[in-house]
């Protein structure tokens, strides 16, 4: 059990740009998660990625549960506590709208990713240069890992996706501004910038209005009887704002989204600087 000076905490970690850099986790982060859990603390993945896009080499560190789809799906100790998705009619309307404007996108569900036939080629063209230029840091695990395969590996393709069940959409390339498209879909649909900031305004994440990572954290909190003051959240992107606001201690990654930095209680380094491990040490989670 944690010592008196380091009370038991529940830590919720964003993946991209926080725990991992382009899908690659530093050795120091893996060690920090394992040490904190060995000392009695709880550590959860809390990501915008759907479960189908969280690779085994990320989960291999060992976690007490996962919040995926930016709060839509919650699993603790192997038990699924929540799995929310767009209502079928709205889901079909969003797909029709994106198809009508020639957007490249993937529909995100826990069991698989779904894309239109041929979208893999567009994703390779758009994402290939970004991932090819990813930095190689000392202490990063599995340098042979291809982050593009985290997306293409679980993909299923179809010429008609209107009947697909999904919780979130990642748009990687839209010929028209996404904000205008989403506004036409009504109040039940939200949009945030893509966590891949290099894609700019042509990309974004479409989600169920009112759904965010703090919603998933509250499900875990209720299930395990956690105290909000003992909740720690670490993140860097726009979809981390609500969870940092909700947590007893919100930690933003240096250089992260301005909205995240604005609500954070403190900051830490990115994966290249082993920021998660530094934050754990500062909180006394490593003994």
List its traits.
globular; eight-stranded mixed sheet; six-stranded mixed sheet; 287 residues; alpha/beta
Helical content class: 25-40%
Q: Work out the number of β strands.
A: 14
How much is the average pLDDT?
91
The coarse silhouette is globular
Q: What's the alpha carbon Rg, rounded to whole Å?
A: 18 Å
Number of helices: 10
Give the ordered list of helices and strands.
EHEHEEEHEEHHEEHEEHEHEHEH
Molecular structure report:
- This protein has 287 residues and is an alpha/beta fold.
- It is built from ten helices and 14 strands.
- Strand 13, helix 9 and strand 14 form a beta-alpha-beta unit.
- The radius of gyration is 18 Å and the shape is globular.
List the helices and strands and how they pair.
Layout: E1 10-13, H1 27-38, E2 42-46, H2 56-59, E3 65-68, E4 73-76, E5 79-83, H3 88-100, E6 104-108, E7 113-116, H4 119-132, H5 147-152, E8 155-158, E9 168-173, H6 178-183, E10 189-192, E11 204-208, H7 213-224, E12 231-235, H8 241-246, E13 249-253, H9 258-263, E14 266-268, H10 275-282
Parallel strand pairs: 1-2, 1-12, 2-3, 7-8, 12-13, 13-14
Antiparallel strand pairs: 3-4, 4-5, 6-7, 6-9, 9-11, 10-11
Helix pairs in contact: 1-10
Summarize this entry quickly.
This protein has ten helices and 14 strands. It has about 290 residues and is α/β, with parallel strands linked by helices. The strands form two sheets. It has an eight-stranded mixed beta sheet.
